[in-house]
Amino acid sequence: MKILHTSDWHLGQMLYSYDRTEEYRHFFTRLKEILRWEMPDAMLVSGDIFDVSNPSAAVARMFKDTILELHTLVPDMKIIVTAGNHDSASRIDIDRNLWRSSGIHVIGGLDRKDGTYNFSDIIIKIADKGYVVALPFVNRASLPKLKNGKGGEEALFGALEEKVNKINTEGLPVVLMAHLAVADCDMQGHRERPIGGFDAVDVEVFGSGFDYVALGHIHKPQCFGNGRIAYSGAPLAVSFDEDFPHTVSIVNVERGESPEIENLEIKPLRALKTIPEEGVPFKKALKTIDKLSDKDLSYIRLNVCQEEDLPVDCMEQAVARSKDKNCRFCTFKFTSVRETPAEPLLSGLKTFEFKEMEPCEVAESYFRSMGISETLTNDYLDLIMQIQEELSQEDDSVKRG
Ligand SMILES: [Mn+2]
User: Fold this and answer.
1) Complete edge-to-edge strand list for the sheet that includes strand 222-224
2) How far does the centroid of ligand 1 lie from the alpha carbon of residue 195, in Å?
3) How many A from CA of 97 to the centre of ligand 1?
4) Are the CB atoms for 157 and 203 separated by under 8 Å?
5) Which residue range forms the structural domain that includes residue 32?
6) I want to staple 322 with a disulfide (CB 3.0 to 4.6 A). Which of 112, 139, 234, 329 is the partner?
7) Measured between alpha carbons, how far is 174 from 367 in angstroms, rounded to an integer?
8) How confident is the model at residue 193 (pLDDT cuts 50, 70, 90)?
């Protein structure tokens, strides 16, 4: 069975308030090319279809129109899409039956009644080629805990394996889709974004009955256990720290064999660039914008060294500097000049000692740990004291009534 595995489209994402619709269209054009060339038996999208749980009407429409277009393009290919932690399971499920009437599977949540799961809707046969278990994101907290203290995923995956094995009398290959973090995975780029329920599962919990586990959630493509368990990665970078090639995977899955994975790079319409490579003073960083070619459509994050006191209108200056270019200025990255903190932050402090500290003392300790200059630290502390004073005055007037 040949599948195209992708995940984490995050449709509708606004990057520093820039609209990314044209970038998604660019990705879909490339995806169509790949599908026409590869003609896989199934296309699997393992969660995080949308960036937010309530995407705009235009974004929801783009998704639906695109899926229908792909279905028309390769009618024999099964399309299976599951919800991730960014998606609203119930909203995605509004159209579950409507999709199914077109032979497409879009699964929002796992049905459960009186503590028993209903798996019939998520075990999908791919012609005479194999089976896909379309498991959407499941909140860990909702899973029953096992007696040995382990997470309930193990029981869930075990039950799914048992159920699919009963149906799979022909001995066809079986693929499990899931949206979660695997322990020890490379989470490069994820620090900037809060990720729901980011506690990871061990690879052992998948058991040995699935021939391929098509994962979503982590945006960097990577695999575990001879490639049997893999992230295809996101097709577009959603943050500047996702500094790696973005891909979709073509996977050949056979029963009882290690899958063959080929990661196909999705070249971005607009790259996310942090320039220059090393942090430099603000004025010098601005000059790197001048050097960009007019053809360069990249999103730009300027790399500025930490110790410098930035002008208050630094954002406006950078935007003005890129006005006549086609790049999109986004933000600054502050690179610390020091390798290690000048002073470790609040080290060796007991809880009761911390409780007794004044806000200014905590702030001062933080500034010192960041290696921020004496003058700047004093300016900041003055501001903090002013705010504190204003707050206490407000508090007094509230109390006076
Ligand atoms: Mn994601």
Assistant:
1) 123-126, 130-134, 174-179, 212-216, 229-231, 222-224
2) 8
3) 25
4) no
5) 2-265
6) 329
7) 55
8) very low
Q: How far apart are CA 58 and CA 322, in angstroms?
A: 29
Cα 376 versus chain centre, distance: 36
Whether 340 maps to a domain, the answer reads no
How many whole angstroms from 151 Cα to the centroid of ligand 1? 22
pLDDT of res. 115: 75
Question: Does residue 145 sit in the same domain as residue 190?
Answer: yes
Q: How far is the CA of 39 from the centre of ligand 1 (A)?
A: 26
Cα dihedral 187, 191, 196, 197 in deg (nearest 10) = 60
- Kindly give the distance from the C-alpha atom of residue 312 to the centroid of ligand 1, in angstroms, as a whole number: 34
Q: Phi/psi zone of residue 197: left (φ > 0), alpha (ψ -120 to 50 degrees), beta?
A: left
Q: Which two tokens stand for residue 272?
A: 């996310």
Is 53 exposed, middle or buried, given 0-12, 13-18 or 19+ CB atoms closer than 10 A?
middle
DSSP calls for 296-336: ---EEEEEEETTS---TTHHHHHHHHTTTSSSEEEEEEEE-
Residue 28 forms part of a structural domain: yes
Average of per-residue pLDDT across 205-225: 96
**pLDDT at 281 > cutoff 50:** yes
**Is residue 89 domain-shared with residue 153, that is, in the same domain?**
yes
Ligand 1 centre from 85 Cα, in Å?
Answer: 8
Whether residue 213 is contained in a domain is answered as yes
Of residues 78, 84, 137, the one with CA closest to residue 110: 137
Render pLDDT for 301-333 as a digit per residue (tens, 0 to 9): 999 987 667 888 999 999 999 999 999 999 999
Residue 271 has pLDDT above 80, yes or no: yes
Q: 257 and 279 share a domain?
A: no
Residue 20 has which token pair? 């990314």
Query: Does residue 203 form part of some domain?
Result: yes
Domain CATH code at residue 219 = 3.60.21.10
